Amino acid sequence: MFITRLISGIVLVAIALLVNHVGGPLLLLTMLAISLIGMFELFRAVKIREKGTNSLTTAAYAGAVLWYVAVWLGHVYGERFDHFYVSFLAAGLIILLFVYVFTYPKYHADQVMAAFFGIVYVAVCLSFIYQTRELPDGRWHVWLILLCSWGCDTSAYCVGRLFGRHKMAPVLSPKKSVEGAVGGVIGAALFGGIYGACIRGKVSADINVVLVYIVVCAIGALISMVGDLAASAIKRNMEIKDYGHLIPGHGGILDRFDSVIITAPIIYFLCSVLRF
């Protein structure tokens, strides 16, 4: 099992290196594909669909595509298009409502709300990986999303196994400990600092890259744990072990990107506000 997870992890990192290096449309389309797969897993988990697709999930996928079109247009036209983002998201909601109304009573209101949640939770949040990449020096900043997510996860697991005594969320995730959480934040901050030291001089902004990356990764690690627990909560509510089996040893897209989903918008926000 460990070897399978390790090999899958290496393959994922290799793909991430390639796609991030190229950036542009390749990264945008990759994130769209990952988003659609993640939404597919979520809709199956919350039982909007059992097999194949239906009109409601198809409408949700269309909403996700519309959002990515908005993101691309925002990149092409810059500030002139900024105020249209919400309009495209609203268009996705309107499509869902069309399906809800004209197929009534085929779908319940909670299914429609879950479908819209899927657009925002998966597609919108993951799109911030691409949006971070498109910031000044974004090719370097985008790795902070993975460092504080996967770095926190790995560090928390190791520290928790060695020193974990106090349960952090005993009902939701009995194996996670307070000690592991602290170790996860410290580990992510260390990863960020080491990464900052490695790329010092490549970031054009006049900042202390090491210090800033330490702080950003520490904040991102705190948020990533919420994303991890939120995904676990959904699985427990739906009484499933994994969202899928696409990634050997890891599960589905949502099993591997559960913390990244929540971390990506935060890192984008921090990079934008701090202007580095």
From TrEMBL:
Q: How does it sit in the membrane?
A: Multi-pass membrane protein
Catalytic activity, as annotated = a 1,2-diacyl-sn-glycero-3-phosphate + CTP + H(+) = a CDP-1,2-diacyl-sn-glycerol + diphosphate
This protein's pathway: Lipid metabolism; Phospholipid metabolism; CDP-diacylglycerol biosynthesis; CDP-diacylglycerol from sn-glycerol 3-phosphate: step 3/3
InterPro entries attached to this UniProt entry: PC_trans (IPR000374)
Where does this polypeptide localize?
Cell membrane
Q: What is its main location?
A: membrane
Q: Keywords on this record?
A: Cell membrane, Lipid biosynthesis, Lipid metabolism, Membrane, Nucleotidyltransferase, Phospholipid biosynthesis, Phospholipid metabolism, Transferase, Transmembrane, Transmembrane helix
Any Pfam family from its record, for instance, is CTP_transf_1
**GO CC aspect terms:** plasma membrane
Enzyme class, first EC level, given as a word: transferase
> TM segments?
6-37, 58-78, 84-105, 112-130, 142-160, 181-203, 209-231
What biological-process terms (Gene Ontology) are attached? CDP-diacylglycerol biosynthetic process
Which molecular-function annotation in GO is an example for this chain?
phosphatidate cytidylyltransferase activity
* Enzyme Commission number: 2.7.7.41
Q: Which family does it belong to?
A: Belongs to the CDS family.
This chain belongs to the protein called: Phosphatidate cytidylyltransferase
Q: Which organism is it from?
A: Porcincola intestinalis
